[in-house]
Amino acid sequence: MHKIIYSNSQEKTAHHNHLDALLALRGLACLMVVIIHCSPPRASIIYKGFDLSWLTFSHGAVAVWIFFCLSGYLMGKAFYTERYNSDVAGVKNFWKNRAIRIFPLYYFSVLILSIFVYPEILKIENWGYLVRICTFTYHPYIGSHPVLFNEALWSLSTEIQFYLLIPFIFNILRPRLIKLQQAIIVFGLIILLTSTFKGIIWLSLYHHIYQQMSYAVKYWYSPLINNLDVFLCGFLVNIFIKYKTPKLKDSDIIIPFTKLNISMILAKYIAVILLILLYLFSAYHLYSQELWGLANRPGGWRTSMTIFVFQPLTAIIVSFFILAFESESYHDFTRNEKLSFAAILRNPLRILEVLGTLSYGIYIWHIPIIYKILTVFTSDIPFEAFYTRVVVTLVLSTALATVTYYLIEIPASRWKIYA
Description:
This protein is mainly alpha-helical.
């Protein structure tokens, strides 16, 4: 095995102002969600007789699974890099810091949206529904007569439920997965077992899931158990990196153009290409097979391709992307320059990190904004109405996310404890 080594002078510039690939991927996933929620029109982009409208049909489910896989990796990394101990005190700190990260903006948005956007939720007969929202047991179709609220919040409920399991998963796997071959086997078993469970649900509720989108969300899309494969695949990337990546020392000297250098660069290109192909494949399928946007088929995500293929495929591709971009800097949290306007001027690609940094706020606010502007920004040309809504939604949700980032997220983060 060849070793990547850096000299002291080269180390200062090797990662001086590079793109944070994972943060950029989070931003792109957020953009995918916003685009699909703005309801792209069908048959709106025709070039020389070819319908290219499917290019705008980013598969929202794939975007959410990207979030879940990234979350699984980052939560596992917090323990594998010993930012948290796995004892009682460490686990309490982990849960406390996750609450500090999620709760302030979440509950602030619930308050604001309940007053100004979805006041029906405050009626006494709907308080049970509000309790589910506040206790992270929410999904858009809780009861037989669901109350309209911010549908994006369901994924935060699923994430919080996963956070509760992370310390237990880590303590179970850490002493047992000590070889790369073991991690590969467990990786495959997780996908196989989850697919089997989803197959049982699919066979048991086939008619309901196929005919009604509410059943597809309630019994297949939103439950944590049906998303564990995505979370755990991201989590297991930590084991792949831990037992495969050499540790670097400050006094090491760089050896350029080694086989390891070339293979790492090639892996990054392959990872990016696979993500692009995943987007194209899933977008085309959503448009042509799931028939999203047709009058007699207003919803999607109910084909066997999405249920049995896209979810594990997303987990595998995103896990490979993480492995490709994280292997070199796994134990380094501070080397890259802090994101700033000056840093973006010197490396314009880092503007993608802005979306990633604000993704939590954008994700929280974009659906209520779409709900309010949907009837305002209209046009006789469907595609014009679509891209106007996308632009307005992005501008308003980014502006609101920026405000809440500086007024809520950053102040709350100062209460985090890592000791």
